[in-house]
Design brief:
alpha+beta; 5-stranded mixed β-barrel; 1 helix
Length: 111
Amino acid sequence: MNLPTPVVLAGAGLCLLGGYLVGVVAGPPAPDRTTAVVTSYEGPTRKLCLEGEAVSELDGAKDDVICGVWRRTDDAAQPAKGDKFRFVSTMNKGQSGSDDDVITIFGEVSD
């Protein structure tokens, strides 16, 4: 039994659409970008500290402030104290407690 080409193409399209929808619903959640204010930035070590209400909910934040290593693109503007900064952060737990946790901040100065 042979099916006409349009029927085969329509079936393939439905399979792709179904796979996409399953991936969106069952897949991992996308990280939320957060906006905060720069409290300090140390260029040589790339240590960036940010503060704001939204920061208090992030892993590794203390007193509405999060500090970590800033990962950036080569053309990204360096942040200065008081700049608005839009970012996503990740925390890798250390083996010997919270003192060796590593927080990485990905983001850029926003308008």
